[in-house]
Amino acid sequence: MSHSPVETTRIRVTDLSFSYRKRAVLRNIHVDFADSTITALVGPSGAGKSTFLTTLNGLWQTIPEARLTGQVLIRLEGAFQDIYADGFSVSRLRRRVGMVFQTPNPLPMSIFRNIAFPLKLAGESRRDVIEPSVEAALRRAYLWEEVKDRLGDNALTLSGGQQQRLCIARALVLEPQVLLLDEPTSSLDETAGRVIEELMVCLKDRLTLLVVSHYLEQVKRIADRVMAFSNGSIERGG
After folding, report:
1. Could you give the strand order of the β-sheet that contains 23-34, starting from the edge strand earlier in sequence?
2. For residues 80 and 72, is the Cβ–Cβ distance under 8 A?
3. Strand 66-76 and strand 79-82: pairing?
4. What are the φ and ψ backbone dihedral angles of 35, each rounded to 5 degrees?
5. Which end of the chain has the smaller Cβ count within 10 Å, N or C?
6. DSSP-derived 3-state class of residue 160
7. Helices 127-140, 160-172: inter-axial angle, 10-degree rounding
8. Would you say 51 and 25 are in contact if contact means Cβ atoms under 8 Å apart?
9. Calpha distance 208→38 (Å, rounded)
């Protein structure tokens, strides 16, 4: 059975512009992102790629003198939601749209507590819910077998690649529908980076992924679609 575009589109961005201190960073972006795909965002530094990611989860709102116009609709629980509509919950948005940054940023606490932290922040305190959720997230992030016997160890003792997978697991524990990754392998060696690439490809069966990358070979390996940014606009999309 075929699906209509409405059913397969996860994110719809319309006439999006973004400025910081009155300087235009993004200009008139119109783009849709489909379910279960990886879109690579490419282009020179300063072209607006990372800023664009922050417009999809509201993270830019912490920046003084930043301004956004246009509309971002994300399909959540089967219906499009305007994430900047009055009354739309930022905490709900962050549960459904996860973010992983360029440099791994584990919290200075145990491996287990790192993954459990978002659940507790969301008000979940039941151990019988938290423990299986932590294990499931670590398994999805390809990390469980490596850490299952040392969950009480400080997360900062993990290698760089393991720390990045921990951060991915921490994003996955809330079961998001979208995962944003800003150069997730740039601080890793080639072997650790390849593991992250394989992980991203496996995750797209249940997620829509947007990945900022400067590595052309990586883009060829993982992306279903490529969007090139230039001077705050989309130059081309595949």
Report:
1. 23-34, 9-20, 66-76, 79-82
2. no
3. antiparallel
4. -60, 150
5. N
6. helix
7. 130
8. yes
9. 6
Residue 151 Cα distances to 38, 105, 123, 163, angstroms = 31, 17, 22, 13
Q: Please return the burial class of 104, using the count of CB atoms within 10 Å of its CB with bins 0-12, 13-18 and 19+.
A: buried
The tens digit of pLDDT for each residue in 171-226 reads 999 999 999 999 999 999 999 999 999 999 999 999 999 999 999 999 999 999 99
CB 209 within 8 A of CB 38: yes
CA distances from residue 44 to 16, 20, 232 in whole angstroms, order as listed: 20, 19, 10
Q: Per residue in 126-137, is it b (16+ CB within 10 Å) or e — as a string?
A: eeeebeebbbbb
Q: Tell me the domain boundaries of the chain.
A: 5-230
Evaluate whether 76 touches 10 at the Cβ level (below 8 Å): no
Burial class (CB in 10 A: 0-12, 13-18, 19+), 108: exposed
- Name the token pair of 222: 């993982």
DSSP state for residue 89 in the 8-state scheme = -
AA letter at 46: G
Count of Cβ atoms closer than 10 Å to residue 176 Cβ: 21
Q: Of 4, 78, 47, whose CA–CA distance to 234 is shortest? A: 47
Q: Closest by alpha carbon to 27, among 42, 16, 13?
A: 16
Whether pTM > 0.90 for this model: the answer is yes
- The CATH topology of domain 5-230 is Rossmann fold (3.40.50)
**Residue written as tokens 């994430």?**
83
